[in-house]
Design goal:
Layout (H helix, E strand, L loop, with lengths): L9 H4 L2 E4 L8 E4 L20 E8 L6 E4 L6 E6 L5 E4 L10 E3 L4 E4 L8 E6 L4 E8 L1
Antiparallel strand pairs: 1-2, 3-10, 4-9, 5-8, 5-10, 6-7, 6-9
Length: 138
């Protein structure tokens, strides 16, 4: 990966997690931040996930944000709708309608290369009376 930018400080530098290239994934560098976008120093991002937690998040009204606190120190996440509906999600309150990731109807989002000391998931769906299934590994 490219050299570090001289404009970042040591605290920011220690908040990056680097993932080397694998046969099926490109190399990447991820900045871990809290809800106010402050960098969080990463202590150990190589912990093996062994404890699953399932959340079935009820979304009663379309285009209305709901939230779910996630377990501490999770490192794998999968999100999908039980029925065919679009999901918009973010990790910052009120951002699920402004600055979000979209999961198209019938698709899922999965990432097994994260290390998250603490987070809350904020999401909304395009249809009323939906359930969003979230699988977290810690």
């Amino acid at each position: 990966m490219a050299d570090w930018n001289d404009n970042i400080n040591d605290r920011q530098r220690n908040s990056f997690v680097e993932y080397p290239a694998a046969s099926d994934k490109p190399a990447r560098r991820v900045l871990v931040v809290n809800e106010t976008s402050d960098p969080i120093p990463v202590i150990d991002s190589t912990v093996t996930a062994s404890s699953p937690t399932i959340f079935n998040i009820a979304v009663p009204t379309a285009d209305t944000e709901v939230s779910q606190a996630l377990p501490v120190n999770f490192n794998k996440i999968t999100i999908r709708a039980r029925d065919l509906t679009r999901i918009q999600f973010s990790f910052i309150a009120t951002e699920s309608s402004i600055n979000f990731i979209t999961i198209p109807s019938g698709a899922s989002y999965s990432d097994d290369g994260v290390f998250c000391p603490s987070a809350t998931l904020y999401l909304q769906t395009s249809l009323d009376s939906q359930v969003v299934e979230v699988l977290i590994w810690s």
